[in-house]
Design brief:
Organism: Aspergillus wentii DTO 134E9
CATH class: Mainly Alpha
Membrane topology: Multi-pass membrane protein
CATH superfamily: MFS general substrate transporter like domains
Main location: membrane
Subcellular location: Membrane
GO cellular component, one term: membrane
Helix content: over 70%
Length: about 400
């Protein structure tokens, strides 16, 4: 939809005032409502079929966006799309955390998230081609063709996923029995204060009662609040003064840089089993980018700022979620809910941040940039707070068990 705005989506649907911003925001209302219940179910269903089924559902709903006629139709489609998309990301994070230990999981989550970043990088190029070649073909605007093409492709991918996704380490078809047991036990050994499995509702209670869940959720919310540019990147790039085709092409490099930096930062965090300094340095660079972006009118400097704040931002989310999984994984049920709560409250940012980017603030979007600086600084403060909390937790473990070898990473 963010690329469709550069075609004729707003004009064709007669969107007025902040109606476009509301359509961006409403997706996350549905997205937030489904995450915690969905992850509570993951330990009680076959994740492979469950995740693939919802992927098929969102592919169909996304395709149907090409048929909407007005603001209200788009609003309903976006709300439903958010609901059927809600199981995927927290569910995928939980499944990855079932297979990889604390030194491995951050990089794996980063690789998963590169799908999002590469989509952001190349969607502009794809949109440019679709708009140039199909706009008006068979009476359909280019943005309608874009929804149709991407939706149909996703239907095909979802069909394949039914046969490829595993359910758990102990239910992975391409591993033999010895490998399945090894995959399960290595994660159990890596988890600090590991406990036996419990009920879904007990997992919910334990996650909610552990105050660290809410500290992580606050950090994730501040991070994603600073990340609000993602729904407006083509609009921000267009303020550089280029036509729509060049604008869509220019959205690619910042996300390509983000792809590589995200994997590099996540790998380094896992390699050195360190979280706080990686978050601090990443956010410091992002703050510089936001400051330059709103502090100059130079086209070159502003585009460099976009590359900097996009490139520096994306690795932080992987570190945060991996930190949640490693810290709150005493039971699978608790870990699943903690990941979902963190992601849900984090993505609450996507409900209100669209209103920080009104078209009237172009070209510098000063309010959004200043807020992003504040949000980024908040992430750093909360990360150091969590570091202090976990240092104290490790001291308690040493005091009660002098032979303990498994401690919280920070």
């Amino acid at each position: 939809m963010v690329n469709g705005k550069l075609n004729s989506l707003s004009e064709d649907l007669n969107l007025q005032g902040t109606q476009y911003n509301t359509c961006v925001s409403i997706l996350f209302v549905g997205y937030l409502l489904g995450q915690v219940p969905s992850n509570m179910l993951l330990n009680r269903v076959r994740p492979a079929w469950y995740m693939s089924g919802f992927m098929m559902a969102w592919a169909i709903v996304s395709t149907l966006n090409c048929l909407v006629k007005d603001y209200h139709g788009l609003l309903v489609c976006r709300l439903v799309l958010g609901i059927v998309e809600s199981p995927f990301y927290p569910g995928a994070l939980f499944m990855i955390s079932q297979f990889y230990n604390r030194k491995e999981v951050t990089t794996r989550m980063a690789i998963l998230y590169t799908g999002n970043m590469l989509a952001s990088a190349f969607s502009g190029l794809i949109a440019a081609g679709v708009f140039a070649g199909l706009d008006g073909s068979h009476g359909l605007a280019g943005w309608r063709w874009l929804f149709l093409i991407q939706g149909v492709i996703t239907v095909g991918v979802a069909a394949v996923a039914f046969f490829l996704l595993p359910n758990s380490p102990l239910q992975t078809p391409w591993l033999n029995q010895e490998e399945r047991v090894l995959a399960h036990e290595r994660i159990a050994r890596d988890t600090t204060e590991k406990q036996d499995g419990t009920s879904t509702w007990t997992g919910l209670r334990e996650a909610c009662m552990d105050y660290r869940t809410w500290v992580f959720a606050l950090m994730c919310n501040l991070h994603l609040s600073a990340n609000g540019f993602k729904n407006f990147m083509p609009t921000v790039v267009k303020t550089l003064g280029f036509d729509s085709t060049i604008t869509l092409v220019l959205t690619c490099p910042p996300y390509l840089v983000a792809t590589f930096t995200s994997i590099a930062v996540s790998w380094s965090s896992g390699r050195f089993n360190e979280r706080t300094w990686h978050i601090t340095i990443s956010k410091a660079l992002a703050i510089v980018g936001f400051a330059v972006g709103c502090g100059t009118s130079s086209i070159g400097a502003r585009y460099f700022a976009m590359i900097l704040f996009v490139g520096a931002t994306y690795g932080v989310n992987n570190i945060n979620i991996a930190w949640v999984a490693a810290t709150l994984g005493q039971t699978d049920e608790k870990k699943a809910v903690a990941i979902a709560i963190t992601n849900t409250l984090g993505n609450l940012a996507s409900v209100y941040t669209p209103y920080l980017w009104p078209d009237s603030d172009a070209p510098r979007f000063a309010m959004a940039m200043y807020c992003s600086i504040g949000f980024s600084a908040g992430v750093v403060i909360v990360a150091w707070l969590m570091r202090v909390i976990l240092i104290r937790e490790n001291r308690k473990i040493r005091a009660t068990n002098s032979e303990a070898i498994n401690f919280y990473a920070y």
